[in-house]
Amino acid sequence: MHVIWKDNIKKNIMSQKAIFYFTTLFLILMVYSYLSIGNQTNTASIKIDLVYNYHIFFYKMTIYLLIIPCFLLLLLDILNFFNHNMVILRFVKIRNWWSQKFISIISLSILFALFLNISLALMFIVKGLSIELDFVFLILTGLFYQIIGFSIIGSLFEIFSCLMKNKYIGIIVTYLFILIPLAIKGLFFKEIYFFVDFMFLLNVKNINEITFSLSTVLPLLTLSLIILLFTCYKLNKNQDLYWVDENHA
Q: Which candidate, 57, 86, 14, places its Cα nearest to that of 201?
């Protein structure tokens, strides 16, 4: 029973649907960034443009229209497994059932973030950009933020699915909720950053700002994730779990 999440992750990640998502995402990211990132040989120029090139790869509209939808679709398939009545009945305690879903959310977040950042590293290598300590620091920081950010998105999906009692409505509401900050940004006179911006370091203008971000933003995102995960557990604990199978495709 303790490896049920692992078998489910492996099965879904290796499915034709997941391979299609990853391949499409990889090709679009690589082609767009290859055409947008210039070839740089001057070391000083590379250091100046490091964060700029990072932002080109993680272009805001690509994040909202491609990366996040792909993650949500993968998450839908992975968490859907736990919503079968036959699977639920295999667990004696709701806590054990939820822990398997929690591990699945975190595991997918790690795998998806690794995929994105390995793709980024490959692009830098293809373009002949030097992989120095600053780049390693940037990519590791972004990786950590993205793992937390995708876990937050997964938690939001689980919360909305429980509240709406329908996984398809849950994924739509989650996506719309994430889009709200993008829609209202034009209403503010100052630049306002939201958690998706922090995930992809869009709030960082240069490499020196990352340390400050780690000491201020990271604790807030971590606390938000803990609160959301606790909310997920309470919602699952207090509901009739058997509704999920009625909406299972």
A: 57
**H-state helical runs in 92-209:** 94-126, 133-164, 167-184, 195-199
Full-model pTM? 0.86
Distance CA 88, CA 160 (A): 19
**How many Cα atoms are found within 13 Å in the side-chain-facing hemisphere of 140?**
9
Nearest to 129 by CA among 34, 29, 201: 34
Do 124 and 56 contact (CB within 8 A), yes or no?
no
Nearest to 207 by CA among 65, 46, 27: 46
Q: How far apart are CA 245 and CA 108, in angstroms?
A: 22
Tell me how far apart the 2 most distant CA atoms of the chain are, in Å: 62
Q: Report residue 141 as tokens.
A: 């920081």
Token code pair at residue 151: 């876990």
206 or 239, which is more confident?
206
Which candidate, 69, 62, 75, 67, places its Cα nearest to that of 13?
75
Q: For 31-60, what is each residue's pLDDT tens digit?
A: 988 888 765 544 444 444 788 889 999 999
DSSP for residue 241: T
239, two tokens: 């509901």
Measured CA to CA, the distance from residue 104 to residue 241 in angstroms comes to: 18
Q: Identify the weakest region by mean pLDDT among 14-23, 31-40, 45-54, 156-165.
A: 45-54
